[in-house]
Specification:
The complex is a heterodimer.
Chain A (H helix, E strand, L loop, with lengths): L11 H40 L11 H37 L2 H16 L2 H27 L16 H25 L3 H9 L4 H30 L2 H6 L17 H8 L6 H30 L8
Helix pairs in contact in A: 1-10, 2-3, 2-5, 2-7, 3-5, 4-5, 5-7, 6-7, 7-10, 9-10
Chain B lengths: L1 H30 L1 H5 L1 H5 L4 E7 L4 H14 L3 E6 L3 H9 L5 E4 L5 H7 L8 E15 L6 E4 L1 H9 L8 H6 L11 E5 L4 H13 L19 E3 L1 H11 L3 E6 H4 L4 E7 L2 E3 L3 H10 L1 E2 L10 E2 L13 E9 L1 E2 L2 H15 L1 H11 L6 H12 L2 E2 L2
Parallel strand pairs in B: 1-2, 1-3, 5-9, 6-7, 6-8, 14-15
Antiparallel strand pairs in B: 3-13, 4-8, 4-9, 4-13, 9-10, 11-12
Classes of the chains: A mainly alpha, B alpha/beta.
């Protein structure tokens, strides 16, 4: 399996090598085994819900009628979160890597990383107890002034606990992930590219546009995809913030639900077929996340030669 | 030097812990005289571990019971895993738990199944926890409101959308009702509180509440929701015009609570009125002797009862395989249904203690538990 052609040391060194390569192999296999085990568990436990008569599933119209709106709700929340977080994150990353004085840059980077260390339940509590009541007048304004847009259709929620609020909380949570990855990638832009751009008379913004961003694009995409993974799977914050309900186009009414929050809210009191249904929902989320990661991999592999990751 | 100092500290700590334990025992004997004095509990020294699985609604009460029981019976511990009522009932039926906590009594089918693990008489349901559910609202300058079942049902179904609705005004002569949007808030998680609240509405206002009673709020209804009792109370506190249903203990003081029309009068929420409603309930037919399953009379006209209550049961076997297990279950459940146990729950979870009559019945049921000969 391993290539030992370059090994020059003898005896003890070789034994150490073998042990180490064995250990790394075991670690690699373990992660595959765990992943496979989780997938197997999900599939086996989900089967009763998938084959049960439709009337027995919550809602009474079968599993796919039950999961469909929740999948859409999950995607809505995650996509809005990314739409909000991505421009901010890239801006922060560029500021840290190319604009800020060195001392400020390291301090700011540290603070952004600190955002990732806050537990999600704290974000949830903040969103539910502080953000939602504060933001609900804004929703009222949106409903009366921009209500002709389906996404701002009134009447606005009086509590402010809507999918938009949940998405804003999520966007704060994915911000540090996208920021720190993008920052690392921007810092790896070859100095020669940057200097060449400046030598050609580019301003700093033009230099970023022609040297830094094209170099970092696959890295930015993978950072966004990692953020998407976090946003899709986020449970506690959404469970606390969102006033869930049926699928609704309006972002400022209560309604919609995400898979992770649905599982968290209903699992404690679930039994029998309900457990299977929730685990099947988990399986769906697993498949979606897997799909997202594979797409991200594919995008990165298309731009491998520029990737900051290698 | 360091070592000796540490040793001395440790010795002091041990002494302190010992002293605490002694005082704990002392105080327990003083206040907990009732359970200790019962012959069965005093005569049998119980040790071992009792495992229960079940409803999370009784969590706070369960913690109080566990702690008091453990300090009164050194060597005996009770483990309770709040996995949900359904999980609890399943666990006692397949023998993986020795008792279950459940917000609903066993169904007839479950009762039949229980005969395989719980002896020929099957399992019995003992009510241990009664909690009144308040209809709590946040209307500026209004603390007191009178509502009947139909109006409550209409409010929570979104059919009454403003607090100055004539239907509410008709019940509240003299109260200035504001022109304010009604925002009903329900539980987003599956809960026994929702189960009992919807059961009340379905029974008392069948023409308006057309959904069946369930632990999950009907998905077809528009409305706000929040996670857990604390979540709904917090949301309503923050939102003028919001209304919810929640355990009275979580509401009191913060929000206005509605008086509910029973018979021809309006009943204020109270522990006594809740206990009365449970007492008025009919025994469920076709149950073995000792079983205390209660069919609550949600439509009672007795104005001393508050019918929006949650009753939580402990489901126990009538016959256990081992004598130690039977003794342990008896000792624990005797304490739970005793006056001391009920007061402990009232103190920590603000539940309504069982009435004396029901306590006696529950005690008799517990005493009938036996081990396989």
């Amino acid at each position: 399996m391993t290539t030992n052609s370059l090994t020059t040391s003898q005896g003890a060194g070789r034994a150490g090598d073998k042990v180490f390569s064995g250990a790394t192999l075991a670690a690699g296999c373990l992660i595959l085994a765990v992943l496979f085990g989780v997938a197997l568990f999900l599939v086996i436990q989900a089967i009763p819900a998938l084959v049960a008569p439709p009337a027995d599933i919550q809602g009474g119209h079968g599993f796919f009628a039950y999961i469909g709106p929740i999948v859409v709700g999950t995607l809505i929340a995650a996509v809005i979160a990314l739409v909000i977080a991505t421009p901010v994150a890239i801006g922060v990353a560029l500021f840290i890597s190319h604009y800020a004085p060195r001392r400020l840059a390291s301090g700011l980077g540290y603070v952004v990383d600190l955002l990732a260390a806050i537990p999600s339940v704290v974000y949830g509590a903040w969103g539910a107890a502080f953000l939602a009541p504060q933001i609900s007048p804004a929703y009222g304004w949106l409903a009366s002034n921009m209500g002709w847009l389906p996404i701002f259709q009134g009447p606005a929620s009086a509590t402010g606990k809507t999918i938009l609020t949940a998405s804003i909380v999520l966007s704060v949570m994915v911000l540090p992930i996208i920021t720190s990855l993008s920052r690392e990638i921007f810092l790896q832009t070859p100095k020669l590219h940057e200097e060449a751009a400046l030598a050609l008379g580019a301003t700093r913004w033009e230099m970023i546009k022609i040297a830094v961003l094209p170099f970092g694009r696959p890295g930015i995409v993978s950072a966004i995809m990692l953020g998407l993974g976090r946003a899709l799977g986020e449970t506690m914050a959404v469970a606390l913030v969102l006033s869930s309900g049926a699928l609704t186009a309006s972002l400022i009414q209560s309604g919609n639900q995400t898979i992770a929050a649905e599982i968290a809210l209903n699992f404690p009191e679930a039994s029998g077929l309900k457990v299977s249904t929730l685990i099947a929902a988990g399986l769906v989320l697993f498949v979606i996340t897997l799909g997202v990661n594979m797409i991200a991999r594919w995008i990165i592999s298309r731009h491998k030669e520029f990737s900051g990751a290698n | 030097m360091k070592a000796t100092r540490f040793g001395r500290n440790a010795a002091i700590a041990v002494l302190a812990v010992g002293a605490l334990a002694l005082t704990a025992c002392g105080s327990d004997n003083a206040t907990g005289a009732a359970p200790a004095a019962t012959p069965s509990a005093a005569a049998v020294k119980v040790t071992g571990t009792l495992t229960g699985i079940g409803a999370s609604s009784t969590g706070a009460a369960m913690d109080a019971w566990k702690a008091a029981f453990a300090s009164a019976n050194p060597g005996a511990t009770v483990q309770y895993s709040p996995d949900g009522s359904g999980a609890g009932r399943k666990a006692i039926l397949d023998g993986s738990a020795q008792f279950a906590g459940s917000d609903a009594y066993l169904s007839d089918a479950e009762l039949a199944t229980s005969k395989t693990k719980c002896g020929t008489d099957g399992a019995i349901n003992i009510p241990v926890y009664v909690s009144p559910i308040a209809v709590a609202f946040n209307i500026p300058n209004v603390k007191d409101l009178k509502l009947d079942a139909t109006t409550v049902a209409k409010i929570f179904r979104g059919q009454i959308t403003n607090w100055n609705d004539p239907a509410i005004a008709a019940l509240n002569a003299g109260v200035t009702l504001p022109d304010l949007k009604v925002t009903p808030v329900n539980r987003s998680d599956d809960s026994g509180t929702t189960q009992n609240f919807t059961d009340y509405l379905a029974a008392a206002a069948p023409s308006v509440w057309t959904d069946k009673a369930a632990g999950v709020w009907p998905a077809s209804l528009k409305g706000e929701n929040a996670k857990g009792t604390s979540g709904v109370v917090k949301t309503v506190t923050d939102t003028p015009g919001a209304v919810t249903y929640a355990d009275d203990s979580a509401v009191s003081g913060k929000l206005g609570t509605a008086q509910i029309k029973v018979g021809s009068d309006f009943v204020k929420i109270s522990a006594a009125a809740a206990a009365k409603a449970v007492e008025l309930g009919k025994p469920v037919a076709g149950r073995p002797t000792g079983d205390l399953s209660i069919k609550l009379d949600r439509t009672t006209t007795d104005s001393s009862a508050y019918p929006v209550v949650l009753v939580s049961y402990h489901v126990v076997c009538t016959t256990y395989d081992k004598k130690e297990t039977a003794d342990l279950v008896k000792a624990f459940e005797s304490y739970v249904v005793s006056d001391a146990g009920q007061q402990a729950a009232a103190g920590s979870a603000k539940s309504a203690p069982l009435s004396k009559a029901l306590q006696d019945k529950a005690k008799a049921a517990v005493d009938s538990i036996k081990a396989k000969a």
